[in-house]
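Quick one:
INPUT:
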């Protein structure tokens, strides 16, 4: 299966650019970057909440694979570390 992306020629500059998908992705990343730039501690806080939630699930007897594999613990640590690195970059 081959996926092609149509390039659209800009009538003002004559340059080719990716159409709708490229501009939507750029807008999404710009909005996300602006949102997170003012809330630098939000991503590490979410990671810490996942770690604490994993600790609470340890006391629930029928939590199943979620407790056995410590998914929230691992995911929370990864998100917290990435959030700290992003906070320094933003």
């Amino acid at each position: 299966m081959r996926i092609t992306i149509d390039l659209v020629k800009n009538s003002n500059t004559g340059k080719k650019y990716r159409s709708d998908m490229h501009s939507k992705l750029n807008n999404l990343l710009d909005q996300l970057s602006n949102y997170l730039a003012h809330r630098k501690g939000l991503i590490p806080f979410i990671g810490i909440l996942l770690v604490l939630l994993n600790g609470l699930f340890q006391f629930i007897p029928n939590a199943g694979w979620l407790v056995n594999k410590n998914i929230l613990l691992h995911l929370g640590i990864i998100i917290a570390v990435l959030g700290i690195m992003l906070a320094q970059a933003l």
